[in-house]
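--- STAGE predict ---
source: upstream dedup step, 1 unique chain passed
mode: sequence only
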Amino acid sequence: MQSEKNLNNSNIPIKEILEKNSAIEKQKILYNEPMKKHTTFKIGGPAEVFIKIENFEDLKNILKLAKSYQIPITIIGNGSNILVLDEGIKGIVLQINLKKFEVEDEIVTVGAGEKIGTIAQKLLKQNLSGFEELSGIPGTIGGAIRINAGAYGKEMKDVVLEVTAIDYNGTEKKFTNEQLKFGYRNSILKEQKYIITRLKTKIRTKQRKKQ
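--- STAGE serialize ---
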């Protein structure tokens, strides 16, 4: 899935920085966490620090600390499109696990940490259509948007109405479909340092077959 890596060596006492300055609950911060637990290939050395991001405020807090103390940040989603070296990852690994599923009229708002297959199932239960072809992609919404993932003739560009992302300075920005400049397995977010937080997509009611 989504992975933006900075593997520069760092002698910064990250644990001390986090314990003194982070508002995140201590039990959510894992040190020397084996990355094989968080990738589909089940390989890879330890992350110096691993944090599962479940709310926007935690994300902003960590980005602010990382900028202040020049700590490398690596972003992952479901871990289904990355290989981690045996020596692991220096700095902080953030797994984006932002969850949201909200339907209003024909607009669905989805958190970047939601799995694509889960969203397809939720839509189906409400007799809504739009994600069927994409449901087999083994990743999260955020990572799929970043690389314009696709399957069975459909890509993420075909379902994106608006994407909300945050840069490494903590500034939030909204992107329209056109602004994302989707290409084959590519988008502007693959080149620029933005972390996707949510998606707005337009769906349709699934037509029932006539008996």
